[in-house]
Amino acid sequence: MADRLRFYDNVLRDHLASHRQMALVSGPRQVGKTTTCRTDGTD
Question: Is the pLDDT of residue 11 over 50?
């Protein structure tokens, strides 16, 4: 399966790189929340 770049991947990566905070990721089922949170950020 091809990796898809999701909109919030970059938003979360940039925010968490500059702020040491917790992020709440919510949304409907099967939109990639878990996949986005489990990626290590290396492209």
Answer: yes
Q: Which secondary-structure segment (H or E) carries 4?
A: none
Rounded to two decimals, what is the model's pTM? Answer: 0.54
Enclosing H/E stretch for 1: none
For residue 24, the 8-state DSSP code is: -
In sequence order, the 6+-apart residues with CB closer than 8 A to the CB of 25 are 8, 12, 33, 36, 37
Phi, psi (degrees; rounded to nearest 5) at 24: -100, 120
Whole-number pLDDT of residue 32: 82
Q: Give φ, ψ of 32 to 5 degrees.
A: 105, 20
